[in-house]
Design goal:
CATH topology: Tetracycline Repressor, domain 2
CATH superfamily: Tetracycline Repressor, domain 2
CATH architecture: Orthogonal Bundle
Number of strands: 2
Radius of gyration: 21 Å
Helix content: over 70%
Strand order of the largest sheet: 1-2
Shape: globular
CATH class: Mainly Alpha
Structural class: mainly alpha
């Protein structure tokens, strides 16, 4: 039993090594110009080792994209779970999302390549993960509405708006070549999300 567990752990480590190196190479050279041989050469393993985990180069690439989005989700969840207060959970999640792409621009490159190279897919990996994990954020937003922390509106619409805003910021920075980290904009984004852009007459709750 212990030996079996140890073998599984070693397999997981090897798989992670392959995907980490594949991510680096795909991001640097693109899917068409990256060969499995380059991955194994850099890792010092046999080609058969890669094919033991992944049937084809396409499967390696898709697993690398999936890994990237999984790591994003883990980072966001870890930040949110650091607090029990609903609003702080939401704000921590936003900051962690932006910080993740500051630290991992190679994942942005893979997302772009996935769309360019595999148009036969009905939905990109990012949006598949979003659909699988969005329900808990709907619940968090509903909790914030019920407590009066944010105004009442469809939580699905709010979640989609925040998600689309952050996703758009990531690609805007990527394509514009801005050097300022996304995480430096987090407080500004949060301020606009929570307060809007128009001044309010506090005595009437209406725009002045």
């Amino acid at each position: 039993m212990l030996q079996s567990t140890r073998l599984c752990e070693l397999a997981d480590v090897r798989r992670e090594q392959i995907l980490a190196e594949a991510t680096r190479l795909f991001a640097a050279s693109g899917f068409p110009n990256t060969e499995v041989q380059a991955i194994v050469d850099n890792l010092g393993i046999g080609k058969g080792t890669v094919y033991r985990y992944f049937p084809s180069k396409r499967d390696v690439f898709m697993a690398a994209v999936d890994r990237g989005i999984r790591l994003l989700g883990e980072s966001v969840n870890r930040a949110a779970d650091a607090s029990r207060e609903p609003m702080e959970r939401l704000l921590n999640a936003i900051k962690a999302y932006l910080a993740f792409f500051d630290e991992h621009p190679e994942i942005v490159e893979l997302l772009i390549q996935e769309r360019a190279e595999f148009r036969d897919r009905k939905k990109p990996t990012y949006f598949l993960h979003k659909e699988q994990n969005i329900a808990k954020w709907h619940l968090l937003l509903r909790e914030l509405m019920q407590s009066g922390k944010i105004r009442e509106m469809p939580e699905e619409a709010v979640a989609d708006y925040i998600s689309d805003l952050l996703y758009g910021m990531v690609f805007t920075k990527f394509f514009s070549g801005r050097e300022k980290p996304l995480s430096d904009q987090a407080d500004q984004v949060i301020e606009i999300l929570l307060s809007g852009i128009t001044p309010l007459d506090e005595t009437r709750g209406k725009c002045t």
